[in-house]
Specification:
The complex is a heterodimer of chains A (167) and B (92). Chain A is an alpha+beta fold. Chain A has one helix and eight strands. Helix content of chain A is 16%, strand content 48%. Chain B has a domain of 58 residues. The radius of gyration of chain B is 27 Å and the shape is elongated. Chain B is built from four helices and no strands. The longest helix of chain B is centred in the N-terminal third of the chain and has 29 residues. The chains are: A alpha+beta (167), B mainly alpha (92). Chain A: It is a single-pass type II membrane protein.
Amino acid sequence: MHSFGYRANALLTLGVTVLALMCAMASFSDNLNVPSPSAQVQVLNINWFQKQRNGNDEVSLTLNISADLQSMFTWNTKQVFVFLAAEYETPKNSLNQVSLWDGIIPSKEHAKFGIHTTNKYRFSDQGSNLRGKEFNLTLHWHVMPKTGKMFADKIVMTGYRLPEEYR
Amino acid sequence: MDWQGQKLAEQLMQILLLAFAVVAFATGYILGSFQMMILIYAGGVVLTTLVTVPNWPFFNRHPLKWLEPNEAEKHPKPQQQPVNSKKKSAKK
């Protein structure tokens, strides 16, 4: 500590170390928050349901997505990424996931929402397995923190079924 | 900066930084504002820099008392014995 440079260096080193410690504690404090999110999705309409020329089934849906994700936000939350996936089983694959819609929630004020939309991304199957198929709609989310660990979880909503015939 | 000033500067730096870290974290957590934590800590680091990095007069209150030059001449350094003379004679 005998010179200006030594003191500046020591202060910078300890300062950054303590800052890292504070960030680690902030990340740890996220574990104390127990979120209780809720979500509902209604399939309002099957707009069309076709077999494409390449043999794959594709369907267009109109959805009403409403969710309350406010309890996920803590002081260390940067944003929340949510996406809605259709999940179903086929003879070839035990789990098929097709992302239908996604969104970024930038703040707690925007975390309670209701959206009326057609599927943002195409709902097509690798094959023609969708007729009469029972599927789940699952809302997945990733809580992105300002520092530290990212949390991910989902809500599974069951009991949706596609029609038996193309339309 | 004298010896005790250096010790004081180091201790001041450590205590101030840790104290600001505790205050910043507590305030940020209670107010639910990450930005507030960072701002308080940044202010604390700047303040600590201003207090401990420049060579302030209060770090120089215990100057070393050197001996007078003529006092040093009365106690000369012990002369180095010529060591290599033995080795040379042994070889010869």
